[in-house]
Design goal:
By secondary structure, the chain is an alpha/beta fold. It has a domain at about 5-90 and about 160-255 and about 410-435 and about 485-560: 3-Layer(bba) Sandwich (FAD/NAD(P)-binding domain). About 30% of the residues lie in helices and about 20% in strands. The chain has 17 helices and 20 strands. The protein has helices spanning about 25-35, 55-60, 75, 95-100, 115-120, 120-130, 165-175, 220-235, 290-300, 320-330, 330-340, 340-350, 355-365, 365-380, 435-455, 470-480, 530-545, and strands at about 5, 10-20, 40, 60-65, 90, 150-155, 175-180, 185-190, 195-205, 205-220, 255-265, 275, 285-290, 305-310, 400-405, 415-420, 425-430, 460-465, 510-515, 555-560. The strands form four sheets. Strands 1, 2, 3, 7, 8, 9, 10, 19 and 20 form a nine-stranded mixed β-sheet that branches. Strands 5-6-13-12 form a four-stranded antiparallel β-sheet. About 50% of the residues are buried. Mean pLDDT is about 95; it is low at about 555-560.
């Protein structure tokens, strides 16, 4: 089987129908097919690397109530083979044990599974995402004297994060998988008893038809999955926890930014904070994180810190290379070929942009700047192992201190259907994405504790960029997400407190599952892609056991047409 342009016949039924061909859906499809299941993958987009303007315009409208806190939808989602991996930076991070546990200072925390339940899926997830091995602790020693601060946690990076070429081609070539693009699921038709799916209603090339399978997995991203279930709930208000229940609520992402620099006592210590190739030929980076005990004692939300360059757009860095990178990214046709639009806009900063001072910076060291940029581009785009970023070292040992922090579950941070519709008849969304005071306060407290431990160890200190009374405002000004779609179909043991159970099966349904970061109960400090793929692998194995998979060369089983 392969990528097809024709929908299945009315009498065909697959073991598993996966809705969505992004990193999660592709990984789940491969894992399930390798276990012997017959899999159909549907995606609303095409096989093309770019989503054209007409396709974007046809999407259901999305209204973001506060654009300052949430990225535009076109920067954060992508339909088609490869899905959001076209926009993904490639960062893979493990959720820590505390992220799954109940914390009395985090309302709504406590998953119905533990880290131990997820660990067996990590090797497969690392292979699908091409980030080497599931090694997330550095063998190098921590800095002495840091107390409850660790420098051993690793973030890993996909060798090539655009997954359509490698992972997508494996899916398309698998004999047990069929892929149908330009197939939009417009409705889920539920059995009269309310406990099972009769079929999916699918729009393909202006024709509507039914797709039937033994099991259905929604892997079409957090926003689209939530929209689809809200559409069903509008017709069946008692489903998915009820109209006033958890569906669409607890929408989370992360807080990220820089409100301080890290000043190293020994400038040579930056080597421990830079990107490096590990024994598995993948790039890794060490970050500052806090022990579970410290998080609980100080009521800290999970937070990581890493060293970074100063903002490219601030000409005061007086660095010719950074200024040349800024100018290149500022040219939209060039910058969009280098970085995803959301990342590009963050690097070039707000308007008005001052170009003359950057040209002066470049004029002081033009040949060095050109040589540096050529090296950066070669390692990022001409190497089979893509270098995810660069850190320009300096003799002064001062670097931007970047934070990536957890956001608390908040039932008032939510997604709703609105009164608009797209070209495919799908309802539009209102996004009411909210940060809480606790989120902001925790970021400041985390900086304070890191500063205390750096000073106590003699390795450095935190140097704030703003006066103390302005720091909350600085965190809030940088607090924006919309790329990490977490929490809106959250996992729970109690059907009244969530949408899916610990196996990602929708409460009250026999054959409907969700594979998405939207099932996370808490956000942790980690980027969600790696855990989302781990849960997809775990789900695929669960489905293969439940279905007692037929032989791989067996045809789809016939059923009576509805």
């Amino acid at each position: 089987m392969s990528i097809t342009t024709e929908p299945p016949t009315p009498t065909e039924i697959y073991d598993c129908c996966v809705v969505g061909a992004g990193p999660v859906g592709l990984s789940l499809a491969l894992e399930a097919a390798n276990a012997g299941l017959r899999v159909l993958v549907l995606d609303a987009g095409t096989q093309a690397a770019k989503e054209d303007a007409a396709a974007r315009a046809a999407r259901p409208p999305v209204h973001v109530l506060d654009p300052a806190t949430h990225a535009p939808i076109e920067q954060a989602t992508r339909r088609g083979l490869g899905g959001s991996s076209w926009l993904w930076g490639g960062r893979c991070v493990r959720f820590e044990a505390i992220d799954f546990e109940t914390r009395d200072y985090v309302d709504g925390s406590g998953w119905p599974l533990s880290q131990a339940d997820v660990l067996p899926s990590e090797a497969a997830a690392a292979a699908y995402l091409d980030c080497g091995a599931p090694t997330f602790r550095s063998a190098a020693a921590d800095w002495a004297g840091l107390g409850e601060v660790s420098l051993s946690q690793l973030e890993r990076w996909a060798r090539q994060p655009k997954l359509a070429a490698r992972l997508g081609s494996r899916v398309a070539a698998h004999p047990g998988i069929s892929v149908l693009c330009e197939a939009t699921v417009t409705d889920i038709i539920i059995n009269p008893d309310g406990a099972g799916v009769t079929h999916l209603q699918v729009l393909h090339q202006s024709q509507t038809f039914a797709i039937r399978a033994a099991t259905y997995v929604l892997a079409c991203g957090g926003l689209e999955t939530t929209r689809l279930l809200l559409t069903v709930q509008r017709r069946l208000p008692s489903h998915f926890g009820g109209a006033d229940g958890p569906l669409g609520r607890y929408y989370m992402g992360h807080l990220t930014g820089s409100i301080a620099n890290i000043q190293l006592t020994d400038a040579a210590d930056i080597r421990d904070l830079d990107f490096s190739l590990d024994d598995h030929n993948a790039y890794v980076r060490r970050r500052f994180t806090f022990s579970e005990r410290t998080q609980r004692e100080r009521h800290l939300l999970n937070t990581s810190f890493y060293a970074d360059n100063p903002p490219f757009y601030e000409e005061g860095h007086r660095n010719a290379t950074l200024s040349l990178v800024f100018l290149a990214l500022s040219l939209a046709p060039v910058g969009r070929r280098i970085l995803a639009e959301g990342i590009r806009l963050r690097h070039i900063g707000p308007r008005p942009r001052r170009y003359a001072p950057h040209l002066l910076n470049i004029a002081k060291r033009p040949f060095r700047a050109a040589a540096d940029v050529i090296t950066i581009l070669r390692k990022r785009y001409l190497s089979p192992v893509r270098k995810p970023g660069f850190l320009l070292r300096n003799a002064g040992g001062s670097y931007a201190l970047h934070f990536h922090a957890e956001q608390t579950p908040n039932p008032d941070s939510r997604i709703r259907l609105n009164g608009t519709t797209g070209a495919d008849g799908q309802p539009g969304l209102d996004i009411d994405f909210r940060y809480a005071v606790q989120d902001l306060d925790s970021v400041l407290a985390a900086h304070q504790y890191l500063d205390e431990q750096l000073r106590a160890s003699g390795r450095g200190r935190v140097v704030y960029l703003d006066a103390e009374d302005q720091r909350v405002s600085s965190v809030l000004a940088q607090a924006t997400d919309g790329f990490h779609h977490i929490g809106t179909t959250r996992m729970s043991a109690d059907p009244g407190d969530g949408v899916v159970d610990s196996d990602c099966k929708v409460h009250g349904m026999d054959d409907l599952f969700i594979a998405s970061s939207s099932v996370f109960r808490t956000a942790g400090e980690a980027n969600p892609t790696f855990l989302a793929v781990c849960l997809a692998v775990r789900l695929a194995r669960h489905l293969s056991e439940e279905l007692a998979a037929p032989a791989a060369d067996a045809p789809p089983r016939p059923v009576e047409a509805a």
